[in-house]
Amino acid sequence: MLDRSGYGLLPLTQVQPEQIAGFDCGTPHLNEFLQTSAKPLHEYRLGFTSVVFHGDHQGPVGYFTLCNDAIPLSSGEMFDMNIDEHEIPLKSFPAVKIGRLAVASDLQSHGVGASIMKLLLGEVLDSGTLSTARILVVDADNQPRVISFYENQGFERSAWAEKQAQNHKDKGGRRAVKMLRDILKP
């Protein structure tokens, strides 16, 4: 079923292997994940992958994988989310993690990623009776283009994770940047 903008999604288990065999987002490890690793994770309920289609495009336009997570928040992050740390004394907060998100390479920089993010957010908000989560979390590839995409989608660098990274200086440079978004913020 396609939405008004022509997008629709299916669980990976309902997509024929030949439909995803030629998917190419320009990042080999993301292509390989979809074609080899996503299905076992889906079947073992360790990460659910949804394949995204558009009525004007032959084959998948992208995919995303979601799983459960929890993340510590700094006092400032809790304040920004209007959470009273004395009333809600949690060490970690329920989150939905975007394990993977990819857009077909020929469709990148055309708004497809933003449309996929809207579908993804709808999936999280619609599952409110099954699981609670206030936060979307992603370990974004530490590349300016990727970081910029997530910032444009309302994500911010995790203050807690940034402090942890400073305390454990990584000589090789960080491969990923933990970013989060309050799902209640427009």
Could you explain the architecture of this structure?
It contains six helices and seven strands, in the order E-H-H-E-E-H-E-H-E-H-E-H-E. The protein is of the alpha+beta class and 186 residues long. A seven-stranded mixed sheet has the order 1-2-3-4-5-7-6, sandwiched between helices. The longest helix is centred in the N-terminal third of the chain and has 16 residues. The mean pLDDT is 89.
Short description:
This protein has 186 residues and is α+β, with helices and mostly antiparallel strands. The protein is 32% helix and 27% strand. The model has no long low-confidence stretch (mean pLDDT 89).
Q: How would a textbook summarize the main sheet?
A: 7 strands, mixed
**What ranges have pLDDT less than 50 throughout 5 or more consecutive residues?**
none
First-last Cα distance: 25 Å
Number of helices: 6
SSE pattern: EHHEEHEHEHEHE
- Into which percentage range does the β-strand content fall? 25-35%
Structural classification:
alpha+beta
Total E-strand runs: 7
**Helix content range:** 25-40%
- C-alpha geometry: globular
Strand order of the largest sheet: 1-2-3-4-5-7-6
What would the average pLDDT be, to the nearest integer? Answer: 89
Radius of gyration: 17 Å
